[in-house]
Amino acid sequence: MKRMILAVLALAATTVAASADPDVAKGEQSFKKCMACHAVGPDAKAKVGPPLNGILGAKWAHFEGYAYSQDIKDGAAAGKVWDEATLNDYLTNPKVLAPKGKMAFVGIKNDAERADLIAFLSQFNADGSKK
User: Fold this and answer.
1) Rounded mean pLDDT of 61-76?
2) CA distances from 65 to 27, 29, 47, 54, 61 (A)
3) pLDDT, tens digit (0-9, with 9 covering 90-100), for 17-67
4) Where in the sequence is the signal peptide annotated (predicted)?
5) Which residue of 11, 23, 91, 121 sits 20 to 30 Å from the alpha carbon of 30, by its own alpha carbon?
6) What pTM value is reported for the model?
7) Rounded Cα gap, residues 27 and 48, in angstroms
8) Is 68 domain-assigned?
9) CATH number for 72
């Protein structure tokens, strides 16, 4: 009986942790992995990858002058938008949405870390100012 109670408590703790609100500060820490290729903020410029200002709600291939992969260009032509669900899928495994894409990053497997990163990115307007 004790084992069953402990198992239920462990499951409940896991469920609460998984459903916790995203943490912007943790997302900022997570973004450090992205900074070799991407930037955010008022002075963000294209690097290996495009700046990610205003990414949530933006059309695919939205940053003028960046040489996107054909997969991303095709998504833009089809009217795809970077909503939270699509960005979550892309961050889980970029090669699923863009098999021939340029992003060499293998993805973020941890659900909470992805949610934190998306929360961090969502605070930036297209001009790099914070909402």
Assistant:
1) 96
2) 27, 28, 12, 16, 10
3) 455 799 999 999 999 999 999 999 999 999 999 999 999 999 999 999 999
4) 1-20
5) 11
6) 0.83
7) 21
8) yes
9) 1.10.760.10
